[in-house]
Amino acid sequence: MPLHPGPDDGPPSFHDLLATAAYRAVAAGLRLGVFDALADGRRPVASLANALGTDPRGTGLLAEALVSFGYLTGGPDGYANTEQTTKWLAGGGYAEVDKFWSVVLFESWEGLEESVRTGKPAIDFYAWLADRPDVLRRFQGMLSGHADTIAPEVASIVPVGSTLLDVGGGHAKHAIRLCTAHPALKATVIDLPDALAVGAAAVTDAGLSHRINLLPGDYDTLDLGESYDTILLFNVVHGRPAAANETLLKRVASALRPGGAVVLLEHDEHSPDRASDAFARVFSLNLFHGQGGQVYGADTITTWLTKAGFTAPTTHPLTTSPGQSLLTAHKP
Ligand SMILES: C[S@@+](CC[C@H](N)C(=O)[O-])C[C@H]1O[C@@H](n2cnc3c(N)ncnc32)[C@H](O)[C@@H]1O
């Protein structure tokens, strides 16, 4: 948790040194299971180390660091989770987000300077994920959980006919929600094979295998099909360079019937809330570094859409996901 030091407490970078060290210590706590091991109450360090299978001195030093950042309380009887730690980190929940972002920041950002210097992503995020099945599982789990939260609102906005294509729709939650709400709808979901494995389980669980077709492959080279009523491009364009998006949107236009709609889900470029705004900028830098993308402004996306032959989009800010909006455009 941030220490909020004052302006006289040293150079600003020292505050960030502390914040970075705190996040790395939290990641170690999560990976070693510290917060879960303290879920039932305070433990002396020897008992904690025994439960974790870790070195007692190292465990004590990690616990002391976590005390200083407000994640644990210390005392003569050992260490305990704080109220906030119990609420957010013990037993899952937000811990999944921190486990994901800590790996991204502390491992994949290693070559950040190279990306900035050359203008080309120093890593290929999806290849990097494919080499780390647990991170990939966590990434898809986060996307799937977020889709569960927004799917009802999304389904109330997306125009639906009888056919829908979800491009990069891996977990299939939006196709499932829309097919459930519209009994005549048939959907196709395209994604990379590992991501679609997550969707396959969800589609089977929902009993919708006969109406949702899962198509594994690269959406840049696969035949997208034709005459769809609706095509979803959710959280896709921010992960790609501008030129690749222009090409993809033209392919999407060809796969729609006249009057059909493309619906994009994207992060807003700017947010009035300072923390959300800072996150959007960090997220943008991360997208540039790993995928050659960024959070694009609505003006840029509108230009691509009109160049691909679409009408100018209508924007629907999502109340279930502040800082994200749906952009709906039609093929005339
Ligand atoms: C940020 S996720 C968005 C997932 C989903 N649309 C959502 O909004 O929750 C991007 C998705 O695109 C998929 N993807 C990335 N590159 C792809 C490619 N070349 N071909 C097919 N799918 C791809 C990823 O596997 C991932 O599931």
Characterise the protein shown here.
There is one protein chain. This protein has two domains: 12-95, Winged helix-like DNA-binding domain superfamily/Winged helix DNA-binding domain (Arc Repressor Mutant, subunit A); 114-330, Vaccinia Virus protein VP39 (Rossmann fold). It is built from 14 helices and nine strands. The protein has helices at 12-32, 34-37, 45-52, 56-68, 83-88, 95-106, 112-118, 125-130, 133-157, 173-181, 193-205, 242-255, 274-291, 298-307, and strands spanning 72-73, 80-81, 163-167, 186-191, 212-216, 228-234, 256-267, 314-317, 324-330. The longest helix is centred in the middle third of the chain and has 25 residues, at 133-157. The mean pLDDT is 95. Residues 126, 143, 147, 168-170, 190-192, 195, 218-220, 234-236, 239, 265 line the site of S-adenosylmethionine (SAM).
CATH topology grouping of the largest domain = Rossmann fold
Envelope shape: globular
Measured on Cα atoms, how large is the radius of gyration?
Answer: 23 Å
Listing every helix as H and every strand as E from the N terminus to the C terminus, the arrangement reads HHHHEEHHHHHEHEHEEHEHHEE
**Class derived from helix and strand content:** alpha/beta
Quickly count the domains: 2
Q: What is the class of the largest domain in the CATH system?
A: Alpha Beta
CATH architecture of the largest domain: 3-Layer(aba) Sandwich
Number of helices: 14
Poorly predicted parts: none
Strand content: 15-25%
Mean pLDDT: 95
Ions, cofactors and other ligands present here are: S-adenosylmethionine
Fraction in helix: 40-55%
